[in-house]
Design goal:
This protein is about 35% helix and about 15% strand. It has helices spanning about 5-15, 25-30, 40-55, 95-110, 125-135, 150-160, 180-195, 210-225, 250-265, 310-320, 350-355; strands at about 60-65, 70, 90-95, 115, 140-145, 160-165, 195-200, 200-205, 230-235, 270-275, 285-290, 290-295. The strands form three sheets. Strands 1, 4, 5, 6, 7, 11 and 12 form a seven-stranded parallel beta sheet that branches. A three-stranded parallel beta sheet has the order 8-9-10. Helix 2 runs antiparallel to helix 9, helix 4 (about 95-110) packs across helix 5 and helix 6 crosses helix 7. The chain starts with 6 loop residues before the first helix and ends in a 5-residue tail after the last helix.
């Protein structure tokens, strides 16, 4: 049987295969492909092959620990922790013993990193205390997932034991959140300046987002040198303002994961998808997030009792899809991405990068 695909798509895939990275127009072309087309299967095969070669078959388990629940006053519309969502009406802070227990479980079950997530108003000093505590108790790399920070706070994270930070410019930033794109990009430059590894993905994707906005975020991740990027889909919690929009399927998510992988080229040390599922592990993803504690996608205070996947279940997904979770992580050695903030944006990144996505 002849296997022929559209010539323009073939050329884009060849560029991706050569790890050159893709521009926005090329990403948009791939994001617009029909899900049932041969071109999409060729796209996923290309992304899958380069990730397996580039990452040496390693499956990365980065263990999410959400340390607090609260009715957050920032009211991001896609977040189950938003005060407006009405799901959580009181503050819950998981105690140190439970956080340490989760961390030691992560270490004993082969987690490659601990991603420590807080809500936007959580005490930054308390986050630093948790970092110092976990640095004494376990030997797994710590990654912060918290609010926007300045240079002084970035240096404090480093001294507290954190080696990186997850930070995303969200789809719908400024529309579905109260935050400005300029401020989010400023934090990325802070992370790069102080020496924290920057982790990222295009999120939270829903049917309401146009491919231009998605492609822009994918390219931004490469331009600023994310250690990993990828794609996370929006999850509808009960009463979500997006219930009428529905959610993208895992199949659609896998197509986006594959496009993002080709966009990233030779920059990343891993490539993520969330929530954990199988098909994206055949489309360029090799990093999953098992979860405990608070989650902005769940109606349970401890997502381990709700939507969160366990370390064991993520490990099994990797094994089923031919990834080895027992290999050393690629994300935290001396070979991680050292891409600098683009020169044309230094000192003027707000004007160059930030744009209104409406």
């Amino acid at each position: 049987m002849a296997w022929q695909i559209e010539r323009r798509v073939e050329n884009i895939l060849k560029k991706g295969e050569d790890l050159q990275g893709l521009n926005e127009a090329e990403a948009e072309r791939l994001l617009g492909l029909d899900l049932g087309s041969k071109e999409v299967y060729a796209l996923m095969e290309t992304a899958n092959r380069i990730s397996r070669q580039r990452f040496g078959g390693k499956g990365e388990n980065h263990f999410h620990i959400g340390v607090n629940v609260e009715p957050c006053p920032y009211n991001c519309r896609f977040c189950s922790l938003a005060a407006n969502a009405g799901i959580f009406t009181e503050r819950i802070e998981f105690d140190e013993e439970e956080i340490v227990e989760w961390a030691t479980i992560g270490e004993s079950q082969g987690a490659d990193a601990l991603n420590i997530m807080t809500t936007g108003t959580y005490s930054f000093n308390r986050l630093l205390e948790i970092g110092r505590l976990l640095s004494r108790e376990v030997s797994i790399p710590l990654v912060a997932n918290t609010r926007d920070i300045n240079h002084r706070e970035g240096e404090q994270l480093l001294r507290a034991g954190f080696v990186g930070a997850y930070h995303a410019i969200r789809l719908g930033e400024g529309r579905d959140t109260p935050f400005k794109i300029e401020k989010r990009i400023k934090t990325i430059t802070v992370l790069k300046d102080v020496g924290l590894l920057w982790m990222n993905c295009a999120e939270p994707v829903g049917p309401e987002h146009d491919i231009e906005e998605i492609a822009w975020l994918m390219v931004l991740a490469r331009r600023y040198g994310a250690v990993y990027s990828g794609v996370m889909r929006r999850i509808n919690f009960p009463g979500s303002p997006f219930e009428d929009k529905g959610m993208i399927s895992e199949r659609e998510l896998a197509r986006m994961v594959a496009v993002s992988r080709l966009v990233m080229g030779d920059v990343p040390m891993a490539h993520c998808t969330h929530e954990p599922h199988a098909i994206s592990l055949l489309a360029g993803a090799n990093l999953l997030f098992p979860e405990v504690g608070a989650s902005p996608r769940d109606e349970k205070a401890d997502t381990a009792r709700g939507r969160g996947k366990s370390l064991a279940s993520c490990r099994q997904l990797f094994l089923e899809m031919g990834w080895n979770p027992d290999l050393p992580s690629n994300c935290f050695g001396n070979n991680h991405s050292t891409t600098k903030v683009p020169k044309r944006t230094r000192g003027n990144h707000l004007a160059v990068e930030a744009r209104t996505l409406s």
